[in-house]
Amino acid sequence: MVTKFANSKMIKITSFSLEEAFGKPFVYFVSPEYRELVIDRHKKKIAEERVPDKYEVEILSKDGRKILVEVNASIIEYEGRTAVSAIVRDISERSQRDHLHDLRFEDAGGEESSAHLD
Description:
Layout: H1 8-14, H2 18-21, H3 32-46, E1 54-60, E2 66-78, E3 81-90, H4 92-107
Antiparallel strand pairs: 1-2, 2-3
């Protein structure tokens, strides 16, 4: 897989140093259970098959934590070759907020409710 990991934002998300991450394929940082999906999507993108541009996967931080990210991939031409450019965004906090909202919704009996203090 040609995709390289060398983005400063990704360095911040994962805590790897630039030296540790530079030149390594993106899939190296993907949690094992998502690697096949990432490789498959990459191959299909390069082959110009129809696959979703956005999807969620977990990547691994330097200390082994799993971080939920959103990948937004698109086809570009790089040095005369077809390549995939991907924007990777940490969505773990958003996911936690959504999960907490879902729990509150379930606790309220499945209906939105609000408490009024008089």
